[in-house]
Amino acid sequence: MTDREQQNPEDPKDPPVQPDVATTASAPPPAGDVALEPELQAFIGRQLVASYNEVLNEPVPDRLLELLRKLEQDKAGEP
């Protein structure tokens, strides 16, 4: 038996051991966090993938390409 297990439950100096929320599967989410149903999480995930796939297929703006080229040139010129 460990020291923690031998503590007197009536002793106010020895607070009860609380389970770790991260390792307890059935524990409610911490205050402020909202648990979503798995179906809703999956729906949101599909919507995000669809939205970001559109963005990934867009061409890179010329101004951004120009800035990236300048950055690469600056890096190449450094000692």
Summarize the structure.
The chain has 79 residues and is an all-alpha fold.
* Overall pLDDT: 75
Largest sheet: none
Helicity, as a percent range? 40-55%
Low-pLDDT segments, ≥5 res: 20-24
Q: Structural class of the secondary structure composition?
A: mainly alpha
Q: Count up the helices.
A: 2
Count all strands and give the number: 0
Which features does this protein show?
single chain, 79 residues, mainly alpha
Element layout with pairings:
Blueprint: H1 38-56, H2 62-77
Question: Please, could you describe this protein's structure?
Answer:
It is a single chain. It contains 2 helices and no strands. It has 79 residues and is mainly alpha-helical. It starts with 37 loop residues before the first helix and ends with a helix. Residues 20-24 have low confidence and may be disordered.
